Amino acid sequence: MGQIADGVHERRVGLRLGQVGVACTGHPAHRETGPQVLRVSCSLAMWGESLARAPPTRVVHGTIPADGPHDSGNGWWQPVPYPGSMRMRPTMSWTPTADLPPGTTNLEPVADVLSTGGVLVLSGAGISTESGIPDYRGQGGSLSRHTPMTYQDFTASAQARRRYWARSHLGWRTFGRARPNAGHRAVAAFAQHGLLSGVITQNVDGLHQAAGTESVVELHGNLAQVVCLSCGAFSPRRELARRLEEANAGFEPVATGINPDGDADLTDEQVGDFRVLPCTVCGGILKPDVVFFGETVPPTRVEHCRKLVDEATSLLVLGSSLTVMSGLRFVRQAAQAGKPVLIINRDPTRGDRHAVTRVKLPLGTALTTVAGRLGIPVDDEATPQVRE
Length: 388
Description:
Structural class: alpha/beta
Number of strands: 14
Strand content: 5-15%
Shape: elongated
């Protein structure tokens, strides 16, 4: 149970997983008490952005003082809204219809739009397959053998978190060693020659930045960072990896595969009694700073991407099936604005009917070929930047 102070009275309220605890001075009508989700519509300048618009995804316990978050001696009160929220049914698959336009091997339209500049790139898991990271839905994709962790399962079950962190810890050893491939390096070359207005990636691997591309918007976050669901503190993944190594000495199972979300395929027996570690600041639940299936992208990030689409002259989709709405919405936005949408993906995509062309070639080959036609050199093996 917790308490909320209104400046005159204090009322005890029940807080469950997925709720937000706050201290508010204002009219009692601004609050809902009892087992319902606690929502605040009053303005709290000292806490930054309006919590009324923030998704309720915090777990808090104890007494919230009227003067706001502080170290009460029993733990930190820091109910900063986690920048994501739940939706009910994560989209896992999409079945192409027979009326989709066929793919082509003609790269001229791609070269033409790049030559004029102002191109916004939207990349998906397919651009990283040549770096040894499988995609979700392509031939041999991970969804054929693996169900990704959902936000709902992660927050609701300690065993699910144990399974996730055991698999993710093992997968990080491989995932963290992945290096940019020719596709990433070509995108970096296009950006360095001023042909791109921006890059949005659905990937969480950091390989665009490692190849030298700047100002990348990571739509789904980055596995190299960890966030606490209780206090909002961020920390480097490498630090958590070090802690997990120490806490799970001798944990050396052999994985049968690696997945685009960075975890490895392990059986429950291999997971065993893997020890999950809490936040070093408040003891709360740690989560990779990525958008899980079943979780929405932070609204401010979506709006930033929408602005990039507005400012671009065309949209180039690289290696995405566009199954989930988080990426498809930008394709629809560009098409509705009359901006050319071009897709390079070996398999049909959910956005094909909005595109002027879909090139069904491997990305590394396609992008380096286009770069050659434009007279832009792409290093065979550019020295990757260190990924934190």
